[in-house]
Amino acid sequence: MAWPILIGQLANVGMSVVDVAMAGHASAHDLAGISLGVSIWNIVIITLMGLMMSVAPMVAHHVGAREFTLVPHLVRQGMWKALGVGTVAMVLTQLSALVFNYMDIEPHVHEVATGFVFIISFALPAFACYRVLYGYSASLNQTKPLMVLSVAALLLNILVNWLLVFGSWGFPRLGGLGCAWATLICVWFNFLGLLVWMRLAPAYRSTWPFAQWEGPRPEKLAALWRLGFPIGVTYFAETSAFGLIALLIAGFGSREVAAHQIALNFTSLVFMVPLSLGIALLTRVGQSLGAGDPVAAKFRAWVGVKAGLGFGLLSAIGIAAGAHQIAWAYTNDANVAALAAQLLFLAAVFQMSDSAQVVISSAIRGYKVTRSPMVIHLTAFWGFSLPLGCVLGLAPHWLPWRPAQAMGAKGFWIALVVGLTVAAVGLLLLLQRVTRSRIQAGARA
Does residue 293 contact residue 380 with C-beta atoms inside 8 Å? Predict the structure, then answer.
C-alpha cells in the first residue's frame, strides 16, 4: 500500500527540491531568499497536514467496520474544516512575512523571501482541501491516483520553474519568485486533478461525498478538531524545530542559511519514505481496529516500526557516504557546499531516530490516540531541541555555560539529533502501552 504513497510524497517534496536547486543555480541570494520563504512555507503546510489528518483514521475505522454510508458525511465536514483552516492559514502566512523586516538580511534576500511567502500563501486553501481528499482516498486503499497526480505536478513544476526562474522561451526572468508561482500552480493542479479523478473513477462511486449539499455540522467539526488539533500541534512542534533554524541563523549570512536549506531539503526528501510507511500504517491499523481485531492492529504496527528502522539504517549509510556529492548537486558555491556536507553528516546520525518516530506516531494515530504523542513531540523539540540549538548555535553572551564560539547551523543540527532521539524513545514506550491496553480491553469485552 505504501509504495504509491511514497512515490507521490517524493514527487511532492521533489517540487521543493526543484525550487531550491533552481534558485541555487540562479544565485546565492536567490537561494537564501527561497530558503527563508520555504522555512515558513514548510511549517505552515506540515501543520496543515496534521490538522487535516483527522479524516484518515476516522474514514479507516468506518471502512474496517464496513460502515461505508458514514464516509461521505465525514468527508464533507472535513472539507468545511479545510476551507476554514486554509483561509486562516493564508492570512497568517502573509502576516508572518513581516518577520523578515526585523532580520539582518541583504535587501535582495528580503525581497525574494517576502514575495515568495505572499505568492504561495494563496495555495493554502487548495492544499488543505487536497489533504482531506488525500486521507479519504488513502483510507479506501486508493493510493495510485495520489501517485500519478503528484508525479504530473512535479513535471509541471519543473517546466514552470524553468520558464520563470531563468526566463526561458521569452517568459519573464523572475529568479527565486518564479519558484513561488510554480508551487502555487502545482498545488491547485493537485487539488483539482484529484477531485476530477475521484468523480470519474468507479472506486469512489459508493462513497462519493459530493452527491448532495450539506452545510457545516458543529458536532462533527468538533470531533474532527479534537482528533486533528493534537496532530497539528505535533507536526508544528517537529517542523518548527527544523524551519525556525533558517530564521535564527539568518544573522550569520547567506552561506549558513543556504547550507542549512540544502541539508534540510535533501533530508526532507529522504523523510518521505518513513512518512509514506506511516500513512499506510495508520490506515491499516485503523482498519484492523474498525474490524474489531486489536491483535492484527498490533502486528501491523510493529511490522511498520521494523520497516521504518531498517530504512533509517540504510539512509544513514547512504547520506554519510554521499554527503559531498549531494551538496554539490544543489549549488556551485564551494563554501556553501562544504558546510552543507557537514550538516548532512549530522543528518545521517539522526536517520534511525527520525524514521522511527514518524512511523511509530502514525501507528499510534491509527488507534485515535493523539494527545500523548503531542506532549512527547513538544517535549522533544521545544523542551530539548530548540533550547539546546539556541545554546550551541547562537552562544548567547548572558549564558555562563555557553560554548566559546557560536556554532551556527551545526549547533542546531546537533540539537536535532538529541530531540529526535528523545521523541523516538518516548513514542516507542507509548506504542507498547497503547497496543497492550487495547488487546487487554478486547479480551475483557
Answer: no
